[in-house]
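hiii, so i know i said id send this last week but things got crazy w the move. better late than never?? heres the sequnce for the chain we talked about at the cafe, plus the structure i predicted for it. fair warning i was half asleep when i ran it
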Amino acid sequence: MAWDQFILDYFINPVYTGEGYNVINTIVYAVGLLLALYALQWGLKKFNIKPDAKFFWAVFPYILIGGLVRALADYMAAVGLPKHWLFITPGIYFLVFGVFVLSFLAARMAKDRTKALREIGWGYVSLLAVLVLFCAWRGFDATSFMAIVAMTASLSVIMWWALGRLGIRTPENTAICAGQMLDASASAIAITFLGYFEQHVVSSAIMSLGSPFFFVPVKMAVALGAVYVIQKQANEPRWEWLLKIVVLTLGLATGTRDAVRVFLKV
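okay and structure toks below
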């Protein structure tokens, strides 16, 4: 019974009440991510799949899918529809991974498998984008959304310049940093001006030191540091690209969710 209450208090209730993350579930999810990385690395090696830049861009739309679905789940809750565990953390990771695996299997029948995988992913993104626009009939905040886009673009230019100075400017590294800047911009604007709150434990602790905009330079430093270390220290291409995809996901998925939430006013 004690374990039932523990799981309810630290994993189930925070998801359904919107409280988000706590120290316990953050640690468990981090360990789960690490184990999933090793399992994925083993699977890629087992099936002789070598991640590269083409694979990176094929995965890109599936990360957007996670952010869009998560935002739509918030919208459903806002209009009184019940939440389904598959559309919220951690269930959404299983959902997106399942969609990716099915798309990957379908793409194997194509001549250019990586291109087919990417096009299938963008097809899903297009459908979800249409659904987001349909949901906007209830009301939308174009001003705040465009402020997030403008801030993201400005910060991304700075990151592009910094990547060049560090000698690691590539389209993929630029995309990773832009995804992190989307997350930082959406969080800073939504929390400062729109009454949102930070759900992640580490981010909340950083923001508690000052203005939510203090999170921006921290994000910039962490993103640049992560990309630099991965680029310079990864000894195996599989790990290099897997880690780049993880850093991209941690910024782009949450940033997409937050930006779309602001747009839909939920």
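btw The mean pLDDT is 86. thought thatd interest u
miss u guys!!
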